[in-house]
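dumping this here before i forget
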Amino acid sequence: MAAILISDSSSGNFKLFAVHKKLEIKPNMYFNIISMTDQVTFNLIIPSIYNLKVEFLNPPYVYNRILPTIRIPEIVAYYYTIKSPKYKFKGERHNLYELTFVDSGTLDTTVDGVNYTLNSSDLIIYGKNQFHTQAVNSDSSWSYLTIMFDMKCDDDSLICNRVFHCRKELYNAVRAFAKKYITYNSLF
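structure:
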């Protein structure tokens, strides 16, 4: 995988674009091919009458790789549950992260005193040692998937204590996980 850094001026505003296919560069453009993997091979085809000139950027361009900031070394537990109307869980805290995905119904949860409401296809991640409660305050049942895991993360405040509404791709991934690893397949 490679990218091209390109501008119409050596002191201009360079832009980075991914290279997926052959491309044609207009004359008098400043460019460089940037490897986004350990190595990249490319062919530069130029007319014999073209005068190719090498220049160096000052300061040089540095490609910053996109590296994961989250690592999940272990999933400790997971389960799919259906709770009856008016269900109340008084709460807990533990030394793991916990993801709760609402498959159907509505969940009211409190995390360290802050209230959240999750609807169908929503999820929340509770941080380590955070006290959290869960309740169904309606006359309908509620079904959900819980995954408890260990995680190494540069800044878990970016993902903890936020309600995420799952788009179709994430929803399908969560459902596929549940179907593969949880014995309650007939419920999903």
